[in-house]
Amino acid sequence: MKKFAVVLLALLIFTSPITALANSNEGKEENKAKVSKLESDERMAKTSGEKVRFDGKDIKINSYLINRSNYVRIRDAAALLKDTPAKFMVSYDNESQKVIITKGQNQKEDFTYVEKREEEKIAKTNKQKIVDSQGKDIELNGYFIDGYNYFRLRDLAKILDFGVAYDFKTQTVLLDSKDAKIEDIYEEGYFTAPINKIKTKAGEEDIRFLIYGFEECPYCQKLKAYLDNKGIKYIARDIRDSEGKKDEIFEKYYKDMTEYNDRVYYPTHIMTLEKDGKSIDKCVVGFEEKQYDEIFKQIEENTYFVENK
Fold it and tell me: Taking every annotated instance into account, which residue ranges of this chain make up the domain Glutaredoxin (predicted)?
């Protein structure tokens, strides 16, 4: 009997991790299946558990994460900003079926936080029409989740004059009712790529590789695979939710790119040669293997990094 109990215990010990791993893998496969079944106007929305600081105080807000961005209901934002310099009121016109935003007036309801368990929902692109108090259309894209319209927090901040930023050090969303121009906070060296010693005809050169992209971007993944295959060290940063950084990148590198003159595209790849105390940057948008083969050929021949005059 004792021998049987020992054998049974051993079986439980060895099979439990396997079962747990199987369940974990099943969960991942289930999520992949959900995403693959989405319509073109649908996205997966996940309950956001991010920390939030509003006017210097830690709070919790009702929000969903879609592609790393926080989405909230306009009414919740209006209630949160009640009695602040960025106050506004939200109403609905049944006849025109339009949401009306009136700046400078308080929302009637007080802000309340509703605790939600972590879950995923299907978010469908909404077609809700929004106007200001003068009847002028407001361009605001969002998603329909569980019977409510949710809008990107940073987009709301732009039209309603409050500040939204992200503290990468503490992983906290920052909201400010007084300063609409607050900036993201990064750890020191967050955008500093490691140095690669690249052999060239003139000897070894110090080159950094910094990629602005994200996981869901197929060309970003192809670029990283290409660099991995060459043994290149690099860092990749997702700046989709960082307006200040996108503006900086656009201003610095996109001026002369007539084919990309409306916004930052991904991947945006910055290669930097550091030599004699100077830095020379080169920017490449997108990924084509033949193009990168030629770039690395020119790097080896010392003809790629030509300082702009």
Answer: 211-251
Which residues have a Cβ under 8 Å from the Cβ of 275 and sit 6 or more positions away? 205, 206
Q: What percent of the chain has pLDDT over 70?
A: 87
Peptide bond into 17 cis (omega under 30): no
- Cα distances (Å, whole numbers) of residue 78 to 44, 84, 101, 119, 303: 25, 10, 9, 25, 56
Q: What is the mean pLDDT of residues 130-157?
A: 94
Cβ–Cβ under 8 Å, residues 63 and 120: no
Bridge partners, 98 (sequence order): 93, 129
For residues 14, 20, 21, 22, the Cα torsion angle rounded to the nearest 10 degrees is 100
The model's confidence at residue 18, banded by pLDDT at 50, 70 and 90, is very low
pLDDT of residue 125: 95
Which two tokens mark 110? 């007080």
pTM: 0.78
